[in-house]
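Example (one chain per record):
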Amino acid sequence: SDCGTSASCDPTPTTIFSANFENTSGDNNWSLGTGASDGNWELGTPSPYSSGGAVMEISAYGGTKDLLTGNGNGQDLDGGPTTAQSPNIVLSNPATNISLALRYYFSHATNGDNSDYLQIQVRDASDNSILSTIVNEVGSPSERNASWTLATADLTAHAGKTIYVYVTAADIGNPSKTEAAIDNINITQSLECGET
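Predicted structure:
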């Protein structure tokens, strides 16, 4: 088909999911787990702080709120894993380009170890299988400052599926200062002309 005859032909990316965590409605209405002994995922206004020389928590990437662990008075993530799950997202078919972009950080002090981690995955809503691991950060015994990082994924191969974003974080081993946060998750799709 071409753009002159097909209503579905639109090369301009259209946003089909957008979570900025400024409220708890629509795409911001995530299911938050309680698997950590302290500092489970929550939607809130960050309380930036440092521990030793490490910057542990920083302001939201966009707006005033984000999805973060251990918020308030130097509280951090302990135990886990703690989980956060987005609402279901339907990926159109046909689509020639489906892209996901988000911002995240993972921070820890010098008492971190490789049992501390942050994972961000895209899963299939029909069977909970992992379709893509977008972020897989592992702790270490060194300072890692909180700094917003861009992560992207091409989801075009999963057109026609219903998916969700699934986030896990943990501070399982040696109790250490560990934090994580996510903000501004966007999924866009487009249908290029001549591709139907």
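Caption: The radius of gyration is 18 Å.
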